[in-house]
Design brief:
Elements (H helix, E strand, L loop, with lengths): L1 E4 L2 E4 L5 H7 L2 H11 L1 E4 L5 H9 L7 E6 H4 L2 E2 L1 E5 L5 H24 L10 H10 L8 E5 L4 E5 L10 E6 L7 E3 L2 E6 L6 E5 L6 E5 L2 E6 L2 E11 L2 E4 L1 E6 L6
Antiparallel strand pairs: 1-2, 3-13, 4-6, 5-8, 6-7, 7-17, 8-15, 9-13, 9-17, 10-16, 11-12, 11-15, 14-15
Length: about 250
């Protein structure tokens, strides 16, 4: 699962990633995203794969930058953006998940009256990002200790934004940590915001809206604004890998 490559610990893609993504019931996932702005993909990674990815956090040359959240008012805890070459498992997750999500993204943009359409293959979308100067990789590894949390936010990074992203819990809740729930909030016009707490097990992924999504109202379709974060970790250590499909300027 792990090998040295270019001085960094590379996590190789497990052979079953494409099959696991293909086994997801994407019709159900699409309906859940339409209804709540998020959906869970169960057991996307095994426990061993999760642990191998979490161990990368201390391999400095695997990353291009480190962010300490408290320094920027983002919360408490820290995260690191992977550098090129990305770990194989991260690249394969991006490549396998994107074509399943692109039809949903295109349908959402149509419903919201947005002209942007997304190509079928992730490589083609990355080429669009790179032509606009968005060259820096955005997949990241997050680490939270006791009392750490992540404030509600959006991962935008530039002009070209893919409207869905994925977070995979690498730690075992109840064993490695307590608390630290994934939280999504939805700001709706003229009514109070709605919160969604998403329970995850080790290896589970949550797919969620990056910025906004369409909602059908009595007067037609309107946009709602979403933000995501992580509640306070009450004990232990929590690791997550974030799969963002657009690159950063």
């Amino acid at each position: 699962m792990s090998a040295r490559r270019g001085g960094a610990l590379a996590v190789r893609a497990p052979p079953g990633i494409q099959a696991r993504v293909g086994a997801v019931d994407w019709e159900v996932t699409s309906r859940e995203l339409d209804a709540r702005g998020c959906a869970v993909l169960g057991a996307l990674l095994t426990a061993d794969e999760c642990e191998a990815l979490a161990l990368l956090y201390d391999v400095e040359d695997a990353f291009r930058s480190r962010v300490v959240m408290a320094r920027h008012g983002f919360g408490r805890g820290e995260y690191k953006y992977f550098d090129h070459p990305l770990p194989e498992v991260v690249t394969d997750l991006r490549t396998a998940l994107y074509p399943c999500l692109a039809p949903i993204a295109n349908r959402w943009n149509t419903a919201m009256g947005l002209d942007v359409r997304f190509p079928d293959a992730h490589a083609d979308f990355l080429a669009r990002c790179h032509e606009a100067g968005q060259m820096r990789p955005t997949p990241l590894l997050l680490r939270y200790g006791t009392d750490d949390y992540n404030c509600l936010h959006q991962d935008l990074y530039g002009e070209h934004v893919f409207p869905l992203q994925v977070a995979i819990l690498l730690s075992d809740p109840g064993k490695d940590f307590t608390g630290g729930e994934f939280v999504l909030t939805e700001q709706r016009p003229r009514v109070q915001s709605r919160a969604e707490v998403v329970p995850l097990r080790q290896g589970d992924a949550v797919v969620f809206a990056v910025h906004h999504r369409p909602v059908q109202g009595t007067r037609g379709t309107y946009r709602v604004n979403l933000r995501h974060g992580v509640s306070r970790v009450r004990s232990g250590m929590r690791h997550t890998v974030g799969i963002i499909f657009h690159d950063a300027a």
